[in-house]
Each structure stands twice: as C-alpha cells, then as structure tokens.
Design brief:
mainly alpha, Cytochrome Bc1 Complex, Chain D, domain 2, 8 helices
Amino acid sequence: MAAIHRSKLMIAALMGAALVVGCGGGGDAAPPAENPPAATGELTAFQLEHGIGPITEAMTLPEAIDHELAEEGEEIFVLKCSACHKMAEKYIGPELGTVLDRRTPAFVMNMILNPQEMIEKHPVVKQLLAETMSFMANQGLTREDARAVVEYIRTQHP
C-alpha cells in the first residue's frame, strides 16, 4: 500500500514538473525590474499596489474596449495562458475574468512580464502561491502582448 502511495506521489511530482517546464514558454525573458525594492528590502507603495516590474507608472485604461487589441490578446491568451487560467473559475492559477476588480492593470501586466520577481518579493503573490501551490512561469511576452491580454481580459468580465 505504501508503495502505491509513493508511486502516486512520484507521478504527481513528475506531472507538476512537466507542467512547470511546459508553461515556461519560449523567447526572451522579460527585462529586469526597473523599480527595484528600497534598500531595506521593503516594497514601495507603488510596488505594493501595482506590482514589481517594467510597468513603473499607474495605468488608466480607456473606457471603450479596443476590440482589435482584445482579439490579439485572446490569441495570446489561448496560446500562452489558457493551460493554467480560466476566466470564470480557479484552475491551476486564479480565475481572470474579474482580476481587474482585484488588481490594477499595471499589477496584472507586471505579473505577466515579471512573474519570478513578483513571486519572490510581492506579499499578495506569495499568498497566492501558498494557496495554489503553483507558480506562474515567464511566457516571454512583450509589453504590447501583455497589454493585449489585459484588453482581452476586460472583454471577459461577467
């Protein structure tokens, strides 16, 4: 019986490792964060609200949805994000249909563009990691790709 339990654990661990590798994407990694934490190791107020990464200014999204950009974002989402995220339910990662109710657009883009540093340093993301026991791999998206994904997410709000 213990051997069967160990075998199941080994299979689960291998599947998890395959998922991490499979979600790693390709392409160049996102550039390092331009707004490093303060010398004390604490995050700035901006970083706490908007995340750590290349998006260093708050973003205001236009009221009207850019449908062409959203279509581009949907294509990217299907290829790079849908293996782990669904819009209306938690899957491997959090549900994203209402993420913009909980997080700023800059936070979402920084999570897309700089997931490793967000996982290591941001308290909200650390908490998500503790809850989901899965981390977001860098998909190698550009700022423009990330913005398109955010526009697509806007179209999915219930």
